[in-house]
Each structure stands twice: as structure tokens, then as C-alpha cells.
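Structure in, sequence out. Go:
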């Protein structure tokens, strides 16, 4: 069991290591474009800044490649070169059906294990040469494609539609409870369908004249990347050099309100990172709601400070949410590194 979990972690780390440059490049280019674009009540305005729009488009393209690369190399880690096509295809379709990085991880794992199973099928010696380059990729790619479009895509769409209706019905109730839920949703899949449901709900409320919902979301949006980035600085010994570099990139992305900066850490260690960032974002959103923070732009992070009401409360929400995230991650990682030593002492 332990060996299986270790292998699974290694597959995830392989995918993450290849995806990090795409996330860092895309995130930083998008961050630079947004940072220098005029911030209006409807968000960053690129209509008078064609060069910044070009930078934004390049960064967005890099981000779009992240899901196929993540899934493709998870599958490659499991099954070798025959796993690349179904993995990349599954990752691309994960973006199309809005399943996010969690869908890409699932697609990569399914693709890899399906290819491994197909490689064990006994075939004629005349077919063996074309199995890894033609037959296996086509069969596995078709299966993964059907899974992502017909099996995973439909329930995700229905679930998100139901979630949107539920949030709308809650908007007339307890504001703090709603903020906690929205903050948790924002962090849960970092740009995936759950995140987007909360974000677009907040954006829709701006059009209704309610800026508090977006204020809570805006504080929660930047907390995951800022929190994981801070965690890599608090205890450097817990992280690899590559992770520490990704932590600096995550901080840069967090300052501009790009939640996806936390994806490499969540994909590599979901059990510890996802609960930590969910807790931190929920705290940030709740504090923002209590402080009556209003965000007039459909965006988040410190970059929207000029269009935010009650700015001190907004800054306090971001700082406290970031601290909660970073401290939880460090404590959980410290506990995981100490457990093996504690187990050895009785023996």
C-alpha cells in the first residue's frame, strides 16, 4: 500500500515538474499585463494597450497548455511514450469540459493505467511493432476522450449549475457563511469549475450592485498562491530548489490575483495543500465580508486595491488568509516528515 502511494506521488510529481514552466511563464506574463493595464470598475482595460494585450494572450496560451502537459506527463510516468497521446488528449479535454487541474490529474492517471493494461495484452508478432505507436495510443486516447466528454463533462456541468442556484439562494441569508463557502470554492480547484462558479457568481453580483460578494472572492483569490509561496520561505528545508523557485513565482501571481499559481503544489501534494489553501481562502473571504469589503472589479488580489471599498480590511483579510495557509502547510509537512521517525522509536 505504501509503495503504491509512493509510486502515485512520483507520477504526480513528474507531471508537475513538466507543468511548472508553463504555469510560471503564463502566470508571470499575465501578471505583468494586468499589473500595467489600467484598472477600471469592469476589471483590467486592455482596449488602449495592444502590447499588454499581446503579452496577456501569450501568457493565456501558456496557461492553456498547462493541463495537457500535466496530464500527459503523469501518463508518461506510468506508461512511457505510449501514454503521451492519451494523457495530452485527456488534459486538453479537461480544459474543454472545465474540469480543471483535478480533471487533468484524473485523465493522466486513467490514461497511464489504461495504456499499461493494453501493453500487457498478448498480440501477434506482426502487430507488436505498431502497438506502442499506433494501436495503443488510438485505443487509449478514444477511451479517455469518451470518459472526459461523456462521463466527466456532463455531471460537472450539472453540478456547477446546481451550485450556482444554491449560491444565489444563499445570497439573502448569512453573509459570513456564504463568504466561507465562496472562499473554500475559490481555493478548492484553483481556476477549475468550482473556482469559476464562485468567481462568476461574485462577478454577477457586481452587476446587481452588490460588491461585497466580489470583495470576499477577491480576498480569497490571491490567498492560495501567496500562502504556498510564503510556506516555501518559512521552512526552506521542506522544499526542493524547484519548489522554492515555483514559490517565488506563486507569490508574483498571487499579487496579481492568479489563483493557479498554487496548482504545482496542490498537484504534487493534494492531501496537505488543498485543505490548507481552502482554510486560508475561507478565512480571507470571511474577514473581508465582516469588514464589508466591496470590490467593484471582477478580479482579485492586491492589484484591485484602487477599486476596493474598506481597503484596510481587504489587506488584513489577505494577510491573515495567507498566514493561515502558510502555517497549515508547514505544520502538515513537518508532521509528515516526523511521522517515520516516531514510528521507528518503539522498534
Amino acid at each position: 500500500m505504501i509503495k503504491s502511494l509512493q509510486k502515485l506521488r512520483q507520477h504526480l510529481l513528474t507531471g508537475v515538474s513538466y507543468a511548472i514552466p508553463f504555469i510560471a511563464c503564463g502566470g508571470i506574463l499575465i501578471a505583468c499585463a494586468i499589473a500595467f493595464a489600467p484598472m477600471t470598475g469592469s476589471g483590467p482595460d486592455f482596449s488602449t494597450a495592444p502590447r499588454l494585450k499581446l503579452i496577456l494572450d501569450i501568457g493565456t496560451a501558456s496557461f492553456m497548455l498547462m493541463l495537457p502537459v500535466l496530464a500527459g506527463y503523469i501518463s508518461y510516468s506510468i506508461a512511457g511514450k505510449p501514454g503521451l497521446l492519451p494523457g495530452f488528449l485527456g488534459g486538453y479535454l479537461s480544459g474543454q469540459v472545465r474540469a480543471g487541474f483535478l480533471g487533468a490529474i484524473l485523465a493522466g492517471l486513467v490514461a497511464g493505467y489504461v495504456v499499461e493494461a493494453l501493453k500487457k495484452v498478448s498480440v501477434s508478432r506482426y502487430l507488436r511493432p505498431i502497438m506502442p505507436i499506433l494501436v495503443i495510443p488510438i485505443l487509449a486516447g478514444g477511451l479517455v476522450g469518451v470518459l472526459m466528454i461523456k462521463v466527466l463533462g456532463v455531471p460537472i456541468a450539472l453540478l456547477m449549475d446546481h451550485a450556482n442556484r444554491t449560491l444565489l439562494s444563499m445570497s439573502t441569508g448569512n453573509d459570513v457563511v456564504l463568504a466561507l463557502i465562496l472562499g473554500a470554492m475559490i481555493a478548492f480547484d484553483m481556476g477549475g469549475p468550482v473556482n469559476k462558479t464562485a468567481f462568476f457568481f461574485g462577478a454577477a453580483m457586481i452587476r446587481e450592485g452588490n460588491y461585497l460578494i466580489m470583495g470576499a472572492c477577491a480576498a480569497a483569490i490571491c490567498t492560495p498562491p501567496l500562502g504556498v509561496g510564503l510556506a516555501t520561505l518559512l521552512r526552506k528545508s521542506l522544499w526542493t530548489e524547484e519548489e522554492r523557485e515555483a514559490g517565488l513565482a506563486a507569490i508574483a501571481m498571487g499579487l496579481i490575483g492568479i489563483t493557479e499559481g498554487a496548482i504545482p503544489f496542490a498537484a504534487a501534494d493534494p492531501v496537505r495543500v488543498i485543505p490548507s489553501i481552502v482554510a486560508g481562502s475561507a478565512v480571507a473571504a470571511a474577514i473581508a465580508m465582516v469588514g464589508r469589503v466591496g470590490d467593484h472589479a471582477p478580479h482579485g488580489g492586491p492589484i484591485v486595491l484602487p477599486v476596493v471599498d474598506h481597503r484596510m480590511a481587504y489587506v488584513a483579510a489577505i494577510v491573515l488568509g495567507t498566514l493561515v495557509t502558510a502555517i497549515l502547510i508547514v505544520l502538515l509537512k513537518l508532521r509528515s516528515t516526523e511521522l517515520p521517525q516516531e514510528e521507528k522509536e518503539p522498534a
